[in-house]
Amino acid sequence: MMKLKQVCNHPAHFLGDGSSVAGRSGKVSRLVEVLEEAVAEGDRSLVFTQFTQMGTCSSATCADDWAVRSSGSTAGAEEEAGRHGRAVPGTEGAPVFLLSLKAGGTGLNLTAATNVVHFDRWWNPAVEDQATDRAFRIGQHRNVQVRKFVCGGTLEERIDTMIEAKRALADRIVGSGEGWITELSTEQLREIVALSADAVGED
Q1: Relative to the CA of 2, which of 8, 87, 163, 170 has its CA 20 to 30 Å away?
Q2: Strand partners, 134
Q3: Half-sphere exposure of residue 41, counting CA atoms within 13 Å on the CB side?
Q4: Which positions ≥6 away from 190 have C-beta within 8 Å?
Q5: Number of separate domains in the chain
Q6: Are 51 and 92 in contact (CB under 8 A)?
Q7: In terms of Cα–Cα distance, which of 93, 79, 89 is closest to 135?
Q8: What is the pTM of this model?
């Protein structure tokens, strides 16, 4: 499943061959469009991904003066956060902050950002919510727009559907972990990994 999620992000992420990034992923192209709009408006953005390799891949398509990419540790994210202008709107710093979901989702206060993008979906919505809350801290006086990217017709869309269907019952069904994924039946697993017919394009 992890490999399929990497394919949804970008072919180069799955292959790990250092090949060209531009023009090969609809998700990456859309990310750049969203960030361009935000930068043009003078807004700052947080981009979360569960894969540290995807942070490198995404930053390769961003303008040189846009992105600050945190390491996979909370300490590294804290160090980079100072350059982003943590908690003080208007502070000098990069307008785009690429973070590891787990590192950036813990212990940071990033109220300078008004845009949050979850580049890939995590099994547990509580982890995503915790990361989003980095921009919804005390001291945030502006609206924050949150986007969650999903590759249509793929494993990602099924994960999204299942998570959203369970969200209202998260405390009872999902809880604070990702163990529910191990309880799926063979048929449910088959349905998750199958590619939808409408997601297959014609040459």
Answers
A1: 170
A2: none
A3: 13
A4: none
A5: 1
A6: no
A7: 89
A8: 0.70
